[in-house]
Amino acid sequence: MTGITYGLEEPIQFSIASKRYLKSAPLMIVIGEVVGVLGYALLCDHYAFRGVPILQAVMAIVTFAVAEEMLFRGMIQRQAARVVHPIVAAVLAAALYTTIFIGHTSALNTSFALVAGTVLSVVYYFKPHVLLTTTANIVMKLSYFGLIATFILR
In terms of Cα–Cα distance, which of 30, 68, 33 is closest to 146? Predict the structure, then answer.
């Protein structure tokens, strides 16, 4: 009977992971806010959601942030870290994240994507928890959107 676990490890592991998330979430919110304000400062003239209802824009922002983090940190950076050094994996994930924005409206978008991708990759390097980087990404995009909506769309 020593090999029977009755599935008790999974809830315990989830509980430990959720406690770690709750401890680090405020830091991710601050990081997201700082990068979002930086995005506003750089990109306030390049607003992408002009004419889109606010609820629809917020839903798009959250959906894209979750998808980006699942792809770039959850798959690319995590899998690459198994093959190469984790720092190289973080650089690769940040570079691939940046390539999405090449050719969009201006070089500022690409520059901001490089900064945001680097920050998110560094966060994932030190705290490999996709929910944390997703939180930072969502807060970053929502703070950028909120500042734009507040100051430009009034």
Answer: 33
How do residues 83-127 score in pLDDT, each as one tens digit? 999 999 999 999 999 988 776 667 777 888 899 999 999 999 998
How many C-beta neighbours within 10 Å does residue 71 have?
15
The model carries a pTM of: 0.75
CB of 80 within 8 A of CB of 137? no
Count how many Cα atoms sit within 13 Å of the Cα of residue 105 in the half-sphere of its side chain. 12
Q: What are 17's two structure tokens?
A: 């992971």
Task: Indicate the domain borders of the chain.
Answer: 13-151
Amino acid, res. 35: V
Contacts 24+ apart (CB under 8 A), 118-121: 118/94, 119/31, 119/35, 120/69, 120/72, 120/73, 120/94, 121/72, 121/73, 121/77, 121/90, 121/91, 121/93, 121/94, 121/97
**Do the beta carbons of residue 105 and residue 46 sit within 8 Å?**
yes
